[in-house]
Amino acid sequence: MRVILLCLLVAVSCYAEEEQKLQWKDEDGLEIKIIRPIKAEKCPIKSQDGDVLDQWYKLTDKEGKEIGSNFNKKPYTFTLGKGQVIPGMERAMTGMCKGEKRKVVIPGSLGFGSKGRERDSIKDDQTLYYTVQLVDLFRAVPGEKWTTEEGIVIEQTHKIDEDKCKKSKSGDTIHQQYVLHLEDGTFVDSSFSRNAPFIFKLNNNEVIKGMDIAMTGMCEGERRQVVIPSDYGYGDNGRSPAIPGKARLYFDITLEKLIQRDEL
């Protein structure tokens, strides 16, 4: 009888420990519950800062009324640890396996804060109730860093092997994803927020000169961090209201798709 009781106690203890791993609440109010766990043998890597995540999400209010969802549609793509999503979502999506699904409760202080989000009718300091799933995960292979003769700093945050490189040249059509910050870290703009790439012809005066230079000779699938001096950006006048005069521009760019001129 004692043996049976001991076995039951061990089983209950193990079950409680497993439940604790699947559900937790942080001191600042962030709550996470894993509702679709992935077995360790099917999870070679877990999400971490710098990874590019494809995410499905559903956002509701406390009563369960849907505010927004992209489940079974095109995933929302962002880079973890870059401030491209609200702080609570950064933490909620960290340490996830591909295919994993979580329910997340994000307090207002880790969400849209005291300003709320008018376009989604999110009130000041409103608590957010999410269901999220990690659809896919991309981890970069860093490459080289150099400075052009124009003073543009280029760093390959993800390189493509030369034998697999489809390389850009003048007249090619570029499908680009980008995030733009100023030198002090102020966010300016991102193609990810529109969930669509920015499309232009290379060296056709359709973008700032520094961007043409930065993306010439770039491989399809390659990612770069680029610092463009104002002379090759928006110059002495800047671009009101977000970009002041003489501003250096800090871009994270991806050549998502390349249509070469001879393919058109």
UniProtKB/TrEMBL annotation:
Residues 50-138, 171-259 form the PPIase FKBP-type domain. It catalyses: [protein]-peptidylproline (omega=180) = [protein]-peptidylproline (omega=0). Pfam families: FKBP_C. The keyword DNA damage does not apply. InterPro entries: FKBP-like_isomerase, PPIase_dom_sf, PPIase_FKBP_dom. It is an enzyme of class 5 (isomerase). One of its GO terms (molecular function) is peptidyl-prolyl cis-trans isomerase activity. Its EC number is 5.2.1.8. One of its GO terms (cellular component) is endoplasmic reticulum. Residues 1-16 form the signal peptide. Keywords: Isomerase, Repeat, Rotamase, Signal. This is peptidylprolyl isomerase.
